[in-house]
Structure formats: C-alpha cells, structure tokens
Amino acid sequence: MLLQHMTPEVKAHLLLVKSRSLQRSNNIHLAELAYVNDQLDNLTGVTGPQQQIQHQMVAEAFGCHLTLPQCPQELSDFEATKNLLCGAIVLGCIPLVKSLLEKPQTSSPMDLDTCCNGFGFPLSLAAAWGHIEIVSYLIKKGANPRRCEVYRDKPWRNGEHFRSIRAGRGRDAWNSALSAAAYGGHEEIVELLMKPENRISPLTLEYFTSIIAAARGGHWGIIQRLLRDTGKSIQDHAERLITECFWEAVYNNHQHVVQMLLDSGADIDKFPCTRYYFGYYTNALGIASSLGNLTMFRFLIERGANPTHCKIQPRWFSPIYCASRCGHEEIVGQLLDLGADPATALYGACDGGQVHLVKLLFERYPDIPSRKRFGDVSHGLPVGLEVLRLAIRIKNPSLISFLVRKGVSLNDGYPEPRFLPIVIAKTESAKWITQHLLSLGAVDQELPEDCKQHNVERYLEEIPEFNYDRMYHFNYRQRGGVMITKRTWEWVGNR
Fold this sequence. Notes:
The structure is a single chain. The chain is an all-alpha fold. The protein has helices at 8-19, 28-44, 48-63, 77-91, 94-102, 122-128, 132-140, 177-184, 187-193, 205-217, 220-228, 239-251, 255-263, 284-291, 294-302, 319-325, 329-337, 342-351, 355-364, 383-393, 397-405, 421-428, 431-440, 457-460, 468-473, 489-492, and strands at residues 478-479, 482-483. Among the domains are: 1-120, no CATH class; 150-266, Alpha Horseshoe (Serine Threonine Protein Phosphatase 5, Tetratricopeptide repeat). It contains 26 helices and two strands. α2 (28-44) packs antiparallel against α3 (48-63), α4 (77-91) runs antiparallel to α5 and α22 (421-428) runs antiparallel to α23 (431-440).
C-alpha cells in the first residue's frame, strides 16, 4: 500500500535498490526489472552516471504498473524479450527497438497490442515518453493506435459511467496511446494519433479520457486540439467533462488550466457525483486543502471559492475537514479565519491522528469539546465525546490520553451504553486499546445486548500478516499506508 503514496521518482528509486538486493530472488517484479536493466546495459554499453539515469528511467516506467494484478511466477523467454523491448522504448533507442522487433522469433510473432507484464502497452509507452519516431515505427509494425480498455470504447453519452484516469501517476502506459501523449504534452505525437487512419473515435469514453489526461498534465493547447474534433467547445459538452478537467488541474497544480476552465464556466464549488475523489468526497478547495497546496488554496479563494461550502452530510469532506485530517496547519488556520467550523476541524484532525493540530485547536478554542459539529451529525454528542470514540477506533493512544487530560469523559455523558468508549474499544478496536482505557480510568462493564452480535474476539487479536479481506472484516485502520497495531502506532499515529 505504501507504493500508492509515492511519487514515480521515489518509487523508481526504491525498486532499483530492491532489484539489486537479495529480495529479487523472491519477487518476480524485482527479478524482471533487474533482468531488463542488465540486458540494456550490455546492449547499449552505457556506464557511469548515464547508466544510473537509464536505470532510473526504466524503473519509473516499470513502477507504474505494480498496482496491477501480479505477474506469473515465471516469465517465458518470449515475455522477457517483450519487456526488454519496452525498456528500449523507454530509452528512445530506435535501433535497439528495431533489432528486437525484427529479430526472428522462435515462437509466434510479438503482439504489440498486449500488455507487457512490467511496462504496459508498447505503443502507449512510446507515446508517454515522447518518442515520436518509435510511435511511427510501432504503428507501421502493426500496433493498433486505437487500442483502449474495453469499457472505454463505449459511447461517451454525456459522461454516463465515465471514469477518469486520476488513479495513475507518472507516465502511465496502461491507457491508450492518445491519452499517454496528451498527458505528457507531446503535441507532435498527438497530431500523429489524430490522423484519420489512427484516431480514436471522438464519440467514445477513451477520447474524452484523453482530454482529461491533457488537463491532468496541464496542457491547455492539447485540450483545445482534442475538443476541436468533437465539434464543440468544452462548455457545450456535458458538465461532467469540464468538472473532471477542473479537478484534475487543481489536483496537479496547473493554475493556468484552472483559470482557463473557470473562464470557460467551471463551477468552482462543484462536488463530485461519485463516492470519492482523490481519497475524499470533496470539491476543488477541499483537494487543495488536503494536499496542503497553499498557493492553489489562495488562488481558488481569490476567485470566489466558498471556504465553508459543503453539500455532504456529515461534513467530513469539507475543506476544513480535508486540511485538518492531513495536518496542514496554515490552511486550517486560514479556513477558520474565513468562518469554517472548528468542531469539524477537530474531528478531521483526530481522524488523521494529527495530535499537534488537536492541541492547537484546544488552545484556540478552549470550549471546543462541548461544541457540536456543523449539522449535528453525531447522535447529539458533543465533539469532544465524538472524537474520543474516533481516537479509540483508529487506535491512537497518544490522542486518547490527550483528550482525557483535557477533561473529555470516559464514562459520563453518553446517551446509551453502546456509545461508551470501553464498549467501542471492545467491539471496534483492540485489546491493548481496552487496557489503555482502563489504565486511564474507564469503568469496565459487560457488553450491552445490542453489541453482543459482534464477534468481539475478532477485534481483540492483532493480525500479523497483511490481507485485504481480513483487513476489512477485522476493522483494521491504516494511516499513510501502514496498518495500525500495537507495534506500529507510535511511529505512524502522530504523522
């Protein structure tokens, strides 16, 4: 899970280090990366600093796809050669690409329209890295420039069932070649792929995905070029298109594209119609707040973004929640000065384990434990009692201790027994958290009847191995990609 939080450059460096260690003997991904780099070293003859640059490029391209399903345990010689071809594509080495493709094959000819286990699709890879000569060559050798994921060749239908490309990071070669080139800002390759014989139909989801890829990369000119073949301006399409482009530009810090989209009619306070966006159900200001991007935050505020606007109940995903959960102190302070809800800020800070921010909120608002969150969405509980229960669920003893020292009650003020902290600990947390509460003065008691339906033992045992299914059923909590256990809470709980 930690890989998902890394930039492509950091992920590539980590993969390189591991691929040079003994770990590669037990991991097919690392072994394949090491093989590709070793073979490319032999074929190119590169040494010294240039070799390190070459290894970093290959690892970055390879790392984009480690969240996809696992490779086979062993790769055939044919698959290894295809991955080597992809490595040569990344480097832009056209003579090597030609020699590998024109080399007589012992089995069937190489299919350029199937995904390489390590790198993605060869044509998309060449487009992503901006190698127009290789793109042209691969098309001549039979690569399909219209290839896209199955669901994306469906009609656009004004954004119905639309999915953007926001899940990927870096030079992603999983999508179509047009999307890859649009994201990278490679205008010559975009023009090549827009020729009638190469162009994806402008009526499909994939074509509009490519427009959003250009917004994600910050390339307004490519957005305009792609829109031109649809016969409409961006404001004449369904609102979903301009909104997705707007969120992508905000998330990726492209102020000029954000401004052009606002000038074209984007709603600055629009919320997504899907459950989550970039990890939060929030709007553009919430995205900037969650990232701690003070420049983009101020940019949006200056253009009329509402710092207290939120259509969601509960107000967890308002800008103040996003900023406080991620611990961005300066943005939290500015939002509070602009009228954001302090109780929601406290809830967000506790949810993120941001003890330093919780302390600052208690200093600024001494009465904050007795307040209620905006909209009163907490069963009538004051936010102090509410966040204590939350701290128990996320297994943060330092936060629990701080709240108790500040006078938040462990035993009184709860409307029903099932709301008591000790009950929450026994049914939704862990045995070591229950023991911590008892040491702080919580009164032990038997579980109420309406809580006995829970399999209490499943919450009282630490699970040593990582498993997605067990993580769900055992109500595990994670912060920063790390599962919270008694052993790990100290070094992630206060991040």
